[in-house]
Specification:
By secondary structure, the chain is of the alpha+beta class. Helix content is about 10%, strand content about 25%. The protein contains 2 helices and 5 strands. The site of one iron/sulfur cluster has 15 residues, from α1.
Length: about 90
């Protein structure tokens, strides 16, 4: 019997809800791979919200999710081997 193992690449998508982000920069300092930058444009709250500009570097550590005081961040692991492109919520 032959067994074939397929290594599944994992990547993440990172979302910031700029309706609640208050631009505190906690995520900028927590994220070692430097996924976040502050926007150069004000949001509706009159602050510069965080943007996940480099989500391709995300390692799914979830520090940003746990550290954001506004609960504005969601990180999803994406399975590249899934043809449907479905996502699953990252687990703690
Ligand atoms: S930690 Fe949360 S509230 Fe603070 S800048 Fe990042 S996303 Fe916005
Ligand atoms: S899950 Fe970790 S690596 Fe990914 S954006 Fe958040 S802090 Fe950065």
């Amino acid at each position: 019997m032959t067994e074939t193992r397929v290594k599944r690449a994992r990547r993440c998508t990172v979302h910031v809800d700029d309706r609640v982000c208050d631009g505190c920069e906690v995520c900028v300092y927590l994220c070692k791979p430097a996924v976040f930058e502050l926007s150069s444009e004000l949001n509706r709250r009159g602050v510069y919200p965080a943007l996940p500009r480099h989500a391709e570097h995300c390692n799914n550590c979830r520090l940003c999710v746990l550290g954001c005081p506004q609960l504005a961040i969601a990180v999803f692991a994406v399975d590249d081997a899934d043809d449907a492109g479905s996502t699953e919520r990252a687990q703690p």
